[in-house]
Amino acid sequence: MQARTRRRPWTRAAVLGGGAHVLYELLAGVGMPFAGPAGPVPAAAWWAGSTAVGVREAGRRPASWDPVFAVVDGVYLSAVVAHLTGWPRVRPWLPWLAECEGLRGPVVHPYDVVLHVSGVAAVGGLLENRRGLVGTLVVPVVVPWLVGAQHRGYRRLLAWFRRQPGWWNRRLRRRGAG
Q1: CB–CB of 51/16 below 8 Å?
Q2: Phi, psi torsion values for 70, nearest 5 degrees
Q3: Which residues pair with 99 in a beta bridge?
Q4: How far from chain centre, in Å, is Cα 61?
Q5: φ and ψ at residue 104, rounded to 5 degrees
Q6: 110-150, pLDDT tens digit by residue?
Q7: Are 79 and 89 in contact (CB under 8 A)?
């Protein structure tokens, strides 16, 4: 007898939110994770493919996969928390970014919305996966690492821009030229 599949709408929304997050970074002109070392096209292909697979599998796998998807939700929540704690905010107590990885001004506001929506979806995913505690435990471990990784990645993108400016990192121009 085959195990019954779970739909996991919140986890699927969190995976879509993570994909939207990195796609927005690319379209806004600040790059995306892995775009520096791999190039923007391979990085975008990897993120699009992993997002599609994540959404599909979250809706197909049985309940025995709940711990795996709880960890996935924990990682996506960690990314949101790392962005909101690791970059300047409008007010110290308000989780609304003033700038992030080269995004400033009006272009950062839609990014804030994407982060907040995907963060809510990740919390929903932790709740919908029966063993969400596993994913919750990921957050305090992954957030400090991600904050450091984001800042190191941003410095690498600035250096990359100085060597090879391109459309995909155009928003780094002001910082990278100096």
Answers
A1: yes
A2: -65, -40
A3: 104
A4: 23
A5: -140, 165
A6: 999 999 999 999 999 999 987 678 888 999 999 999 999 99
A7: no
